[in-house]
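Inputs:
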Amino acid sequence: DAGVIQSPRHEVTEMGQEVTLRCKPISGHNSLFWYRQTMMRGLELLIYFNNNVPIDDSGMPEDRFSAKMPNASFSTLKIQPSEPRDSAVYFCASSPTGTGAYNEQFFGPGTRLTVL
Amino acid sequence: AQSVTQPDIHITVSEGASLELRCNYSYGATPYLFWYVQSPGQGLQLLLKYFSGDTLVQGIKGFEAEFKRSQSSFNLRKPSVHWSDAAEYFCAVGAYGSSNTGKLIFGQGTTLQVKP
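Outputs:
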């Protein structure tokens, strides 16, 4: 398996522009997680989906952030408009669930976002 | 509220020395515990996990961790550190009531520096 795939790996944009980050989870995994990592705040859970349904978006910082999972093999995280404080590494992770036990989350390589 | 605490933000050890990274958790029942490693510029990779049974768990790269219920701890150890072990280490616990969705609560991480 190719693992969790994220694109782009690096994104540089200007303040006010729309940014879309993409994630393809591991086939067969039915939970998908979006995290943000910064030096100041560490690793933060933004939102997660189970069976394509958003379960908890309480970590989404503002209305400028939105996430979708239109099918089991694709998710997007969108920031509109972007601001310099959104600069961070964004990780997507997926996990097989539904077995009654916690399973590990498999992380993608991350997207490094820089907003100028 | 459920939490994971990694008391040491930064640790420096000499190559060949032993290592112990601390992790304390708050959880009302038997926890599901994980240790992840993040090398520079990479995503998180699972080192080991504890669900039940033997309280001493072996992982990849020569790491082990011991679950101590009385101390609410899950410390990570390695007998002899290699320069390639320099990375950030995260402890995590399965969020209570979220086994069907796989949500994990992560600690703030410990950065390990290895001196030659």
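Remarks. The CA atoms of residues 46 and 59 of chain A lie 4 Å apart. The two ends of chain A are 36 Å apart (CA to CA).
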